Amino acid sequence: MTKKSNTVSKPAALFSCPDGSLVLSSQIQYSETTLEFERRQDRSLFASLAAVMLGFGILIVHSASITSWPTEFERVYLSRHAIFLAIGMCAAVVCYLLPIRFWMKASPWMFLATVILLAAVIIPGIGTRVNGAQRWLRFGPISVQPAELAKITLPMFIATIMTRRRKHLHRWLKGTIPVVLPIIIVLPLVLKQPDLGTALFLITIGALTLFLGGWPIRNFIISAGLAVPAFAYLFTMKSYQVARITGFLAAWSDFDKAPYQLKQSLVTLGTGGLSGVGLGRGWQKLSFLPEANTDFVFAVVGEELGLIGTLGIVVLWAAIYYAGLRLMRSLHRQSFAYVVGITLLTQLVLQAALNVAVVTAMVPPKGIPHPLLSYGGSSLIVSIVSLGIVLGLSKSDKTDPSRLRL
Q1: Between the N and C ends of the chain, which has fewer C-beta atoms within 10 Å?
Q2: pLDDT for 287
Q3: 18 lies in a domain?
Q4: Are residues 198 and 274 part of one domain?
Q5: pLDDT averaged over consecutive 10-residue blocks of the chain (406 residues)?
């Protein structure tokens, strides 16, 4: 005779939704499990696409580093790039594992350290001067460009301030001065180097952070009314900056009067045609194209892999951006995680777009490396770390303190 079990199954609890409908707790658990599975897939896709770009960067850096007198120097470039890549990957893994609470608490100190480095780089005898610009700090064989660090610390600090002062954003003084002050502090230090292009880029990043954080539109209009005339003056006060603009215009009106680097860039792109001359077989990088493995590496892609290769890079960046947006879609808008994640993601894609625009003579020439593709250094490490932070912030959920503050 079988013994009847006394276990009684408990009915699933009912929860009411905002629209008045009822759902079972089992349905909620299934929904949360499905959401987490989708987020893991999105993170895997995002990381895979970034890995493809980094892998292609290794190939093209090695190819673009070949000179007209091939020596072991190309191997030095490749080994250094691999070292920078390894450092960036290790730092990105650490950033991925850090909780969001850490970034909110550490952002003021990280920003302060960046300001100290920016101030130190313009002090004679401390900063290193290259081609008339003093933008680097050298520690033995290692050189650091503090302005690159500001691409992470500036938006993170602004987002922290906005998260903590959410109720005051629509006030003129309490909602304007505290969130704009970080930009006002960093801007003159970068302009002093001088680096007008990076200064404009940091302002764009800061403005994007403010916009995502919910800063009133009226403040943007007033700020633009003050900033546009100021930068117009800065563009015209230096003769070499005026020469860049006139040379850029000449590239489309009188090609013979265009700057040498722009002419060589366009010639390099045109040489590749549709399918290119083959990876490693380009000629323009052989001492003709300036900065072939850094600022104009995209032109090398055009010569060796043709229009197919360059369009492939553009499509890959579009896929990375789309995958990154999917990562952030479940986060609360205007939360710390969402604002910082979207800002860091957008700035990488924007920098890549600006590099392509410079190489194709769509904007005046400016030293802007192609993230994840150009020869390594501070830019490569910061770009990889930004990806790690984006992946880490995508793990934010409803229990995150940055969301409870909203």
Answers
A1: N
A2: 76
A3: no
A4: no
A5: 44 47 48 70 91 92 69 65 91 93 93 93 80 75 84 94 81 80 91 83 92 86 80 68 73 75 87 87 82 87 92 95 91 88 95 92 83 87 94 72 44
43: in domain: no
**42 in a structural domain:** no
- Tell whether 282 and 346 lie within a shared domain: yes
| Token digits of residue 85 | 């890549």
Residue 5 has what pLDDT? Answer: 44
SS3 content of the chain, % helix, strand, coil (to 5): 65, 5, 30
Predicted local distance difference test score (pLDDT) of residue 279: 85
| CB-based contact 103:340 (threshold 8 Å) | yes
Which class for 399: exposed (0-12), middle (13-18), buried (19 or more C-beta within 10 A)?
exposed
What is the tens place of the pLDDT at every residue in 356-395?
Answer: 999 988 888 777 889 999 887 888 999 999 999 999 998 8
Can you give the C-alpha Rg of the chain in angstroms? 25
What SS3 class is residue 26?
helix
End-to-end CA distance of the chain: give it in Å, rounded: 62
Mean of the per-residue pLDDT values of the chain: 81
Residue found by looking up tokens 């403010």 in the block: 210
Give the distance, in angstroms, between the CA of residue 144 and the centroid of all CA atoms in the same chain. 17
Q: Which of 332, 348, 333 is nearest to 387 (CA)?
A: 348
> Is residue 130 situated within a structural domain?
yes
pLDDT of residue 244: 72
Regarding whether 352 and 223 lie in a shared domain, the answer is no
Range list of H helices, 98-176: 100-121, 146-164
Alpha helices in 140-176 (DSSP H): 146-164
Dihedral over Cα of 53, 56, 58, 60: its sign: negative
Q: Is 211 helix (H, G, I), strand (E, B) or coil?
A: helix
Domain end point (choices 216, 237, 258): 237
Q: Is 245 exposed, middle or buried (0-12, 13-18, 19+ CB in 10 A)?
A: middle
Q: How far is the C-alpha of 28 from the C-alpha of 32, rounded, in Å?
A: 6
Instruction: Report the domain count for the chain.
Output: 2
* 269 within 8 A of 302, measured Cβ to Cβ: yes
- Within this chain, do residues 399 and 253 fall inside the same structural domain, yes or no? yes
Backbone angles phi, psi at 298, to 5 degrees: -65, -30
Same domain assignment for residues 174 and 102: yes
Question: Of 204, 237, 270, which residue constitutes the final position of a domain?
Answer: 237
